[in-house]
């Protein structure tokens, strides 16, 4: 059966650990100048309907430095704008490719595409999930703290795709996840009940007060207040999230060894200040670099038999 990664739910906890170990091993080889050509001649196709700096380019860099090559096309160029059916696009494109990454608005579109694809399909961000970001964040936290279990990740902001994927990641690895969120922007109740059904020991909660939430944080995490596609709602969101900015005053309430993370792109001056982004507790660039190491680990884990 073709394996896909549309959500972290496509992995079990052991597979997730295996994948992290593969990425960590390839990263340490990469740092000592070794680029094992594990996937010579393999083709990655990337199908995106939203912009991307990290995801698109880290995936392409990853396939190239494993010995393969990448093709990039927008969903419109691929014909998903009504030029032909989803089945026809997925069947044909997957016949040219060894792995496909997709960035879409609709999460269901990735799931439906995967059903017709003869090669693995990886979610490169949808409105509901961002699994490769969450995998990257796990690798980064593991590097920083030495372990995941017991880590308290406090996400200050919107209950969005990144927050939901981190909540799943936390449940799968024994981390505690707290979302500090204004009323009306929480993670959906149906998502939470599904999560606790799958992972009954999940330690996930949502609270209204960021100041209280960060007092026990090992990681303070934030993301944009308006995700791609929500630009028209930006002004309303700026008001709703005004008290949820991660700034030096908020970081002072967290333990002094707490780290700051952001998946990027950041809106400096809104959800986070320059002082925090560029401060000593910030690990955002290590996190961004790790997108590529996770991509290499993921390709190797999925495709090297
Ligand atoms: N973090 C992330 O997915 O960044 P891009 O939108 O630039 O890919
Ligand atoms: N929540 C953001 C993440 C960007 C990487 C968005 O969906 O736009």
From TrEMBL:
One GO MF term: amino acid binding
Boundaries of every Aspartate/ornithine carbamoyltransferase Asp/Orn-binding domain copy: 150-302
Keyword Lipoprotein tagged: no
Annotated EC: 2.1.3.3
One GO BP annotation of this record: citrulline biosynthetic process
Domain Aspartate/ornithine carbamoyltransferase carbamoyl-P binding: 3-143
UniProt keyword annotations, A-Z: Transferase
Any matching Pfam family: OTCace_N
Catalytic activity reported: carbamoyl phosphate + L-ornithine = L-citrulline + phosphate + H(+)
Domain of life of the source: Bacteria
Similarity comment: family membership: Belongs to the aspartate/ornithine carbamoyltransferase superfamily. OTCase family.
Official protein name in the record: Ornithine carbamoyltransferase
Species in which this protein is naturally found: Fuerstiella marisgermanici
């Amino acid at each position: 059966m073709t394996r896909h990664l549309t959500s972290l739910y496509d992995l079990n906890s052991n597979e997730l650990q295996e994948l992290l170990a593969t990425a960590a091993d390839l990263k340490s080889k990469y740092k000592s100048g070794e680029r094992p050509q594990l996937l010579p001649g393999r083709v990655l196709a990337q199908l995106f309907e939203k912009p991307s700096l990290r995801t698109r380019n880290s995936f392409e860099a990853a396939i190239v430095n494993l010995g393969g090559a990448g093709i990039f096309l927008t969903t419109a160029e691929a014909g998903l704008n009504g030029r032909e059916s989803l089945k026809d696009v997925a069947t044909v494109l997957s016949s040219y490719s060894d792995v496909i990454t997709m960035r879409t608005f609709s999460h269901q579109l990735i799931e439906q595409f995967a059903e017709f694809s003869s090669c693995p399909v990886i979610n490169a961000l949808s409105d509901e999930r961002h699994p490769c970001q969450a995998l990257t964040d796990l690798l980064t936290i593991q590097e920083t703290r030495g372990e995941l279990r017991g880590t308290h990740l406090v996400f200050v902001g919107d209950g969005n795709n990144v927050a939901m994927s981190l909540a799943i990641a936390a449940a799968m690895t024994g981390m505690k996840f707290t979302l500090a969120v204004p009323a009306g922007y929480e993670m959906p109740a149906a998502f939470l009940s599904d999560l606790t059904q799958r992972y009954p020991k999940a330690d996930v909660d949502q609270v209204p007060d960021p100041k209280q939430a960060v007092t026990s944080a090992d990681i303070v995490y934030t993301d944009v207040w308006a995700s791609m596609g929500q630009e028209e709602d930006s002004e309303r969101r700026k008001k709703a999230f005004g008290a949820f900015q991660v700034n030096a005053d908020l970081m002072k309430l967290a333990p002094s060894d707490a780290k700051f993370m952001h998946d990027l792109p950041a809106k400096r001056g809104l959800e986070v200040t320059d002082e925090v982004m560029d401060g000593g507790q910030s690990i955002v660039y290590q996190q961004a670099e790790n997108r590529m190491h996770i991509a290499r680990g993921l390709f190797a884990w999925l495709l090297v038999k």
